[in-house]
Amino acid sequence: MPKRKAKKLKGQEWRHIENKKLVYSVYFVLRLSVVLMLVAQFFNQNYENMLLCVLTLVLFMLPSIFERRLHIDLPDTLEVIILLFIYAAEILGEISDYYIQFPYWDTMLHTMNGFLCAAIGFALVDILNREEKVSLHLSPFFMAVTAFCFSMTIGVLWEFFEFAMDHWLLFDMQKDTVINTISTVNLDPKHGTAAVVVRGIQDVILVLEDGSQMPLGLGGYLDVGIIDTMKDLFVNFIGAAVFSVIGYFYVQGRGKGGFARRFIPRFQRSPAVGPDAPVQDGQTAEKAE
Predict the structure, then answer these.
(1) pTM
(2) Does residue 232 have a pLDDT over 60?
(3) Which letter does DSSP use for residue 185 in this model?
(4) DSSP state at residue 213
(5) Distance between CA atoms of 160 and 276, rounded to whole angstroms?
(6) Domain ranges for the chain
(7) How many CB atoms lie within 10 A of CB 143?
(8) CA geometry: angle at 173 spanning 59 and 163, to 5°?
(9) Which of 8, 123, 138, 273 is the most buried (most CB within 10 A)?
C-alpha cells in the first residue's frame, strides 16, 4: 500500500476515534455503573440480578461488534441512545424497579424502541437502495413503509417473547392491569355470543385447590397482560410512524435532513484515494451525482 494511502487511512481512523469520544465516555460511565451494581448484587446474594448485570455488559458490546462485523458506522447519537436504552431497560427498569415505581417507564422504552427500530430498518433499505449489486430501488414512500413494518415486526416479536416467558417460565413481563369493568361472552346465560358487561368490580377472590379463599384486595379485576401488550404495540406504532415520516422527508430532500442522519447507520466502504473514490453513504445524493 502506498505511504500516502496508508497515511490517509490512519487519518480517517483517527478522526473516527475522535468523533467517538462522547460514545466512549458514555460507555465507560455506564459500564462502571453496571460493574458496581454487579458487585453490590453479589454481596446481596441476588444471583438473578447478577445475571442481568452480565447480560447488560454483553449487550453494551453489541453496537461496536456490529460496526466491525457488518462494516457500518453507527451515528454517535444513535449509539449513545442504544446504550442508554439498554441501561434504562435492564439496570433501572429491572434491578432498580423503575417499571413499578414509574408507571410510564415501560411505555417510554417501547416508544423509543419503535423509533430506533424504524431508523435501523430505514438504514437497511437505504443501504440496499444504494448498493449497485442489488436490484432494489424503492421510492422514499415505500422506504418509509418498509422501515415502519420492520419496526412493528420487531415490536410484535418482542411481545411474543414476553408472552413465552410468562407462559412457560411464569415471569410477569406482560404486566397486569387492574380494571373495574369487563365484557365477556363466558357469562352469557344462553351460552351464546352475547357479551355480558360487568361494571363496578371492586375485588377478586381466588379459590385455591384446597378450597381456601384468598381476597386479593386490588380494588378491581386483574387483567393478565392483554392491556399492557396492546399499549406497548400502540406506542411502538407511534415511535415507528414518527421516524418513518422523518425518514421519508430525509430521502425526499436528498439526504439534507440533519436530524434523521443522526439515527441512520451508514455502510462503510473501503476508502480510496483520488477522484474515483467511492461515495460514502453519509454523503448527499448531489455529491454522488
Answers:
(1) 0.81
(2) yes
(3) G
(4) E
(5) 48
(6) 3-170+236-288, 177-223
(7) 24
(8) 100
(9) 123
Q: How far apart are CA 261 and CA 75, in angstroms?
A: 8
223 by Cβ neighbours in 10 Å (0-12 / 13-18 / 19+) ranks as middle
C-alpha cell at 146: 418498509
DSSP 219-260: SSEEE-SHHHHHHHHHHHHHHHHHHHHHHHHHHHTTT--HHH
pLDDT in tens, 105-123: 999 999 999 999 999 998 8
pLDDT of 273 > 90? The answer is no
Q: What whole-number distance in Å separates Cα of residue 63 and Cα of residue 72?
A: 10
184 φ, ψ (degrees, to nearest 5): -145, 145
Q: How far is CA 94 from the centre of its chain?
A: 16
83: cell is 446504550
285 has a pLDDT exceeding 50: no
pLDDT interval class at 40 (50, 70, 90): very high
**Residue pLDDT, tens place only, 251-265:** 888 667 678 888 988
The H or E element that residue 267 is part of is: strand 266-267
C-beta of residue 185 within 8 angstroms of C-beta of residue 192: yes
Q: Which residues contact residue 191 at a Cβ distance below 8 angstroms, ignoring those fewer than 6 apart? A: none
Residue given cell 454481596 in the structure block: 43
CA distances from 255 to 9, 41, 118, 135, 150 (A): 25, 47, 17, 21, 21
Please check whether residue 72 is in contact with residue 267, taking contact to mean a CB–CB distance below 8 angstroms. yes
Q: How confident is the model at residue 49 (pLDDT cuts 50, 70, 90)?
A: very high
